[in-house]
């Protein structure tokens, strides 16, 4: 069994894949496994992976998997999880990279702590600029209950730092069904995943370990494209709300889930200009439907605690819903 499996999906990243693969080579060990998943790329990415896999296989264990159809990041990660054999697992995106020696430090840390998973800070790379992004939880190097790290509702917490590649995970989480992603989600795939992990895992720790470089501003990234795939965040957060509502501590945790959902809706509505007109209309309609599905009493409480700009945006949306129901002309609302 490999000590650590690194799952790396690739899709049309020929410009960045060489840097990603070079960083894996700089982290390679004979007891590390690299699971490379090509999600039906249409550029030169498959050829780059073919050559890199041959070189990597000289210094580490390598599995190269090709999808017959493009399934998106969540599905590609699941393919990697199904194939991975490591005692511990981590992720990397095909356009990001790692510092030399980072994976050894990561594997050593989670093994010494003996917890279900660990989380780390990362460096955001935008062109030549570098920005340190810290995990919201301040206490470092101590094993904690992940459920406690979901709250408080009105502050940034562990579930607001959803990046799957910012950490490592023990294989027992795979066996418990806690590491797979919701099939087919094209964006916000990390959100239901991080909530489930914090609700159901038993132990975690945050490390003072830096080594993941997250590339922002990539033209092919969904965060830069205003098409309908971006709207999958609705499906993702509906899942968060539904699963949290069934939790044994729903009364305690649901306000945080609703507040986060509201914040994300307000964020997308605030950037609605980047969407094509038909998608923008769909965003408004889907957001209104999402507001309608939320627990209304709890929604009202959440809106009372949000800042004026976001709460006003959501209240206007909510009033339009109410007006539509009662037959009141929208102009009067």
The number of helical segments is 11
Q: Please tell me how large the radius of gyration is.
A: 21 Å
Q: What low-confidence regions span 5 or more consecutive residues with pLDDT below 50?
A: 326-333
How is the largest sheet built, in terms of strand order? 3-2-1-4-9-6-10
Question: Nutshell version of this structure?
Answer:
Helix content is 43%, strand content 15%. It has 333 residues and is of the alpha/beta class.
Blueprint (SSEs and pairs):
Layout: E1 4-10, H1 17-27, E2 32-38, H2 45-56, E3 61-66, H3 73-83, E4 88-91, E5 97-98, H4 102-113, E6 117-119, E7 122-126, E8 129-133, E9 167-170, H5 171-175, H6 190-200, E10 204-206, E11 212-216, H7 232-245, H8 250-270, H9 277-293, H10 296-305, H11 308-326
Parallel strand pairs: 1-2, 1-4, 2-3, 6-10, 7-11
Antiparallel strand pairs: 4-9, 5-11, 6-9, 7-8
Explain how this protein is built.
Helix 1 (17-27) links the parallel strand 1 and strand 2 (32-38). Helix 9 packs across helix 11. The protein has helices spanning 17-27, 45-56, 73-83, 102-113, 171-175, 190-200, 232-245, 250-270, 277-293, 296-305, 308-326; strands at 4-10, 32-38, 61-66, 88-91, 97-98, 117-119, 122-126, 129-133, 167-170, 204-206, 212-216. The chain is globular, with a radius of gyration of 21 Å. The strands form two sheets. It has a seven-stranded mixed β-sheet with strand order 3-2-1-4-9-6-10, with helices on both faces. A four-stranded mixed β-sheet has the order 5-11-7-8. The chain is an alpha/beta fold and 333 residues long. Residues 326-333 have low confidence and may be disordered. It contains eleven helices and eleven strands. The chain is 43% helix and 15% strand.
């Amino acid at each position: 069994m490999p000590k650590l499996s690194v799952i790396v999906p690739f899709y049309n990243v020929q410009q960045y894949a060489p840097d990603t693969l070079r960083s894996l080579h700089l982290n390679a060990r004979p007891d590390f496994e690299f699971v490379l998943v090509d999600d039906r790329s249409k550029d030169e990415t498959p050829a780059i992976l073919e050559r890199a896999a041959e070189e990597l296989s000289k210094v580490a264990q390598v599995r190269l998997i090709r999808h017959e159809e493009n399934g998106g990041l969540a599905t590609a990660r699941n393919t990697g999880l199904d194939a991975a054999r490591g005692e511990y697992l981590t992720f990397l995106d095909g356009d990001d990279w790692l510092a030399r020696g980072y994976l050894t430090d990561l594997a050593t840390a989670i093994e010494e702590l003996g917890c279900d998973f660990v989380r780390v800070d990362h460096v955001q790379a935008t062109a030549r600029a570098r920005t340190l992004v810290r995990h919201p939880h301040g206490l470092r190097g101590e094993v904690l209950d992940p459920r406690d790290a979901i709250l408080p509702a009105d502050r940034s917490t562990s579930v607001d730092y959803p990046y799957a590649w910012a950490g490592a995970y023990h294989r027992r989480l795979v066996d418990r069904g806690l590491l797979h992603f919701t099939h087919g989600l094209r964006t916000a795939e990390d959100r239901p995943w991080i909530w489930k992990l914090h609700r159901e895992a038993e132990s975690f720790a945050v490390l003072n370990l830096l080594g993941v470089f997250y590339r922002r501003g990539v033209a092919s990234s969904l965060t830069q494209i205003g098409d309908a795939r971006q709207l999958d965040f609705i499906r993702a957060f509906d899942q968060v709300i539904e699963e949290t509502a069934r939790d044994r501590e729903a009364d305690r945790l649901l306000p945080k889930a609703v507040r986060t959902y509201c914040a994300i809706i307000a964020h997308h509505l605030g950037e609605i200009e980047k969407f094509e007109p038909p998608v923008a209309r769909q965003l408004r309609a889907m957001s209104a439907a999402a507001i309608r599905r939320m627990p209304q009493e709890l929604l009202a409480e959440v809106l009372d605690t949000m800042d004026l700009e976001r709460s006003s945006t959501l209240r206007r949306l909510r009033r339009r819903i109410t007006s539509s129901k009662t037959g009141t002309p929208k102009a009067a609302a």
